[in-house]
Amino acid sequence: MGALRASAPEKHDGKNPLSVLATMAIVGGMFAVAGLPAYAISTPEGASSAKTSLVAQSVSVSSDATSSTATRDGFSATSPEQLEQLNEDQIRAANDAAYVASGARELGDDYPWPYELTDDQGGGLSPLNYYYRECVDFVAWRLNRDQGYYGAPFKWVWSNLTPFGGNGGQWEYNWEALGRTVSDVPIAGAVAYTGGNHVAYVKAVNADGTVLLEEYNWIPGMYSQRTIPASSVAAFLYPPT
């Protein structure tokens, strides 16, 4: 047998196996991190600071914005009062048109309120305190006119002309109660109580024993004239003084 050769000692590179494992783990981790999305590894701004500072922001508003106001579309609702006024104005316009067509002015009517709403139309009292366009209001106007009272303050109104009742059928009683002249003899300017609830104004006394009357509301709400026998008039109420 040949002589035995001593085996060469095993070589070592001087690296600790544990350190090799650790190095491999770190390198693997680096590759893993490199594969993550960018936002997963980004560092938040200011993360290096222990405290995060908040900066107050100021907002400025334009002067145009502060001075501007809400703009409406121009629509406005009509109130019940306005609707009522519109309705009354339409009735007055119709009354005036009918009056003009009647020719009353040409006949000599000078009553100041021929277009006003009658009681049946929802109207009220005239400045003489009788209902507009009633027989009594017209006659009261004529008595004032004949004594020179063409506007307020009038001399004769309900309270002193017929204080015991203003209806046409009450005028004779008022005359008697106040000591005024009541006669069956007609004179121009007197009140003709024709009976019932109606009075008229005596415009003229004719030689044939008739009287020419002017009146309102013999034709409803309108001025008219008629000639009738004086004997058919219940009483002539002479103008008050």
Structure description:
There is one protein chain. Helices cover 32% and strands 15% of the residues. The protein is an alpha+beta fold and 241 residues long. It has a domain at 80-237: endopeptidase fold (from Nostoc punctiforme) (Alpha-Beta Complex), CATH 3.90.1720.10. The radius of gyration is 56 Å and the shape is globular. The N and C termini lie far apart (186 Å).
Give short descriptive properties of this protein:
single chain, 241 residues, alpha+beta, endopeptidase fold (from Nostoc punctiforme), 6-stranded antiparallel beta sheet, disordered N terminus
- Taken as a percent bin, the fraction of beta residues is 5-15%
The class by helix and strand makeup works out as alpha+beta
Radius of gyration: 56 Å
What's the helical proportion of residues? 25-40%
Note poorly predicted spans.
Answer: 1-56
Q: What is the average of the pLDDT values?
A: 80
Instruction: Examine the secondary-structure arrangement and name the CATH architecture of the domain at 80-237.
Output: Alpha-Beta Complex
Q: Please report the distance between the alpha carbons of the first and last residues.
A: 186 Å
Instruction: Identify the CATH homologous superfamily of the domain at 80-237.
Output: endopeptidase domain like (from Nostoc punctiforme)
**Assembly type:** single chain
Shape: globular
Counting H and I runs of at least 4 residues, what is the number of helices? Answer: 8
**H-E string:** HHHHHHHHEEEEEE
Fold blueprint:
Elements: H1 17-34, H2 38-41, H3 63-67, H4 80-102, H5 104-107, H6 135-146, H7 158-161, H8 171-177, E1 182-183, E2 191-195, E3 198-205, E4 210-219, E5 222-229, E6 235-237
